[in-house]
Design a protein that fits this description.
The relative contact order is 0.16. The longest helix is centred in the first third of the chain and has 6 residues. The protein is globular. By secondary structure, it is an all-beta fold. The protein contains one helix and 19 strands. It starts with a helix and ends in a 32-residue tail after the last strand. The chain has a four-stranded antiparallel sheet with strand order 1-2-3-4, with no helix packed on it. The structure holds beta-L-arabinofuranose (FUB). The site of beta-L-arabinofuranose has 12 residues, from β1, β5 and β13.
């Protein structure tokens, strides 16, 4: 029985949640539908497109192929399509993506979360290495007051800048927010008025990969490393990292989407996308995530339900 067929029989997502090699998932809830934006995990020169996935319940996922194709993004160098981030503002969808292993971060726009996305600028949104941060792994965070921020950075440096209302330019300077041990994959979650900044550490192609976090009172930090939230489990999977988190509406339940390498495999691109619960301790700290094979329970959120990025 295929993984897809097995999932269809069960009221749980199962892990991995989708078939195929994918990594760096960013999970959203738009109008009651879950949307997943991952990297196609394959050799850099073959990474020329992005796929998205949608689900009404976290169990059955529909693939939306080629929501952005580097054939339509000439400055991309047509390789290394990595780690996208999607944000909605005023009914339009903004898709931030890495191109060319340092060629730049781009932004593309669509009227639907399924795309097709069109490159907005005809050039990188970020083409330099501010404070030494490689322009990869963008994450767009929209605060409760409507202000939008773009976090990004590889090569062990993280930066953030405020996005202008057009979502395709910046207001002010890039600020170096690099926490201890930071490598790549930044993500921001706001809970209880506090800013939980998260990132990946180690080497994504080995067992050293993991994810950690810090808490601050401002989206600009300062971010002091508070602990590890996701790491290998020799009984479940290795090289777990590069995650995103959504808060489900009506409660304080959080789901973490991340990639990991199935046990017994060693090719760096053999990465699969998984979902598990992320729990907070009473003092507001994040409990280490327990990776599972079952994943999370089926959820249906009414179309009024709006989660992260909604
Ligand atoms: O998937 C390509 C790269 O691997 C990402 O940009 C990194 O964060 C790492 O997950």
């Amino acid at each position: 029985m295929t993984a897809t067929a097995q999932r269809a029989r069960l009221p749980v997502s199962g892990n991995p949640i989708i078939d195929g090699w994918y990594a760096d998932p960013e999970l959203h809830l738009f109008d009651g539908c879950f949307w997943l934006y991952p990297t196609c995990s394959k050799p850099f020169d073959e990474q020329t497109t992005f796929d998205a996935f949608s689900s009404p319940d976290l169990v059955i996922w529909t693939r939306h192929p080629r929501i952005l194709d580097f054939a339509d993004v000439p400055w991309s160098t047509n390789r290394a399509a990595w780690a996208p981030s999607c944000a909605r503002r005023d009914g339009r969808y903004y898709f931030y993506f890495s191109a060319g292993d340092g060629a730049g971060l781009g932004v593309a726009i669509a009227d639907s979360p399924a795309g097709p996305f069109a490159d907005a600028l005809g050039k990188p949104l970020v083409g330099q290495y501010p404070h030494g941060a490689q322009p990869i792994d963008a994450h767009c965070f929209i605060d409760d007051d409507g202000e939008a921020y773009l976090y990004f950075g590889g090569h062990r440096r993280a930066v953030v800048a405020r996005l202008a209302a057009d979502m395709t330019s910046f207001v002010g300077d890039f600020i170096d927010i690099t926490p201890e041990n930071y490598v790549e994959g930044p993500f921001m979650l706001k809970r209880g008025g506090r800013y939980y900044f998260m990132w990946s550490e180690g080497n994504w192609s080995t067992d050293t990969y993991c994810a950690a976090y810090a808490i601050a009172d401002s989206p600009f930090g300062p971010f002091v490393r508070a602990g590890t939230i996701l790491r290998n489990d020799p009984l479940i999977a290795s090289a777990a990292g590069h995650h995103s988190v959504i808060a489900l509406p009506d409660g304080d339940e959080h789901l973490i989407a991340y990639h990991r390498r199935p046990l017994g495999l060693s090719d760096e691109n053999q990465r699969v996308v998984c979902l598990d619960r992320m729990l907070f301790n009473d003092d507001g700290s994040i409990a280490p995530v327990r990776m599972t094979n079952a994943g999370v329970g089926s959820r249906r959120i009414g179309s009024a339900g709006r989660g992260a990025g909604g």
